[in-house]
Prior knowledge:
- The chain is built from 6 helices and 6 strands, in the order H-H-H-H-E-H-E-E-E-H-E-E.
- Helices cover about 30% and strands about 5% of the residues.
- The radius of gyration is 25 Å and the shape is globular.
- The protein has helices spanning about 1-15, 15-65, 115-125, 160-165, 175-180, 215-220, and strands at about 165-170, 195, 200-205, 205, 235, 240-245.
- It has one domain (about 40-255).
- The strands form 2 sheets. It has a 4-stranded antiparallel beta sheet, covered by helices on one side. Strands 3-4 form a two-stranded antiparallel ribbon.
- The protein has about 290 residues and is α+β, with helices and mostly antiparallel strands.
Amino acid sequence: MKLLNRRRDRGRSAFTLLELLAVIFIIAIVAAILFPTINRTHDGSNRVKCGSNIRQIGQALMLYANENKGNYPRTFYKADAPLVFSSDATNTASPRDPFGDKGLPGTVAENDVTAAIFLLIRTQDITPEVFVCPDSNLDKDTYGSAPGISAQSKTSFTDWRKHLSYSFANFYPSEAAVKAGYKLNAATGAEFATAADMNPGVGDGYDVTVPNEKSSTARMQKANSRNHQGQGENVLYGDGHAEFVQNPFCGTKMDNIYTVSGSTDGSVTTSKTVTGSPAWAGDSVLLPALK
């Protein structure tokens, strides 16, 4: 009799197939509700960390300017020469001078944008990790595997496409831009974008030349940085403050910070030109740009 009761008790405690399916269904509903929240929390924390990176870069720019008569970093400058985006994969512990005689090993070309950015690592108390957005799939630059190698052994990032998540205002303006009043220094206006998440350029579903300031959200996302999957970008302004914005029309006069302006007075905010010199004094053209 007792054995029969135990068997009946075990029978009552077991789940039926219907009950098991109901539990699975409830778990699936809870997961569907919680996963987007978890992802948003993760994305939000990455945006905050990215914004912190941008502010640290802004502080480094200000310190550099204070030490160099108000000027932002650049190496050799030749007005109207092409812009260069170099990488320095040289695996050596020997010092490499970005200001040495042009043409010698270890020196850089004229108008080298990424070498100018790398000067912040060489001269300021800022690490390569700060130049990598946590929402991107890039890694901090470790300068290679040679013993004793450091930032002072390099003239630029080992590979800027793998170690640089941010774009910067043009350090090498054309003569026309200078005549139009373009200046990039510590006195740059508070509405001028000096840096931001990497310019998405044109390709892989992105195109910064497509939207205008009145475009739909879906169209605008094609012009946002790839760092945050088209949701927006952290932007650093001339007075050192940074904020997350949801489209690139956030510069002076609602300027598209990722393209050359379509006019010389800022009345047309975007154009088909992604890599070039500013068209007017308040025109932010953040580089490098992806392809």
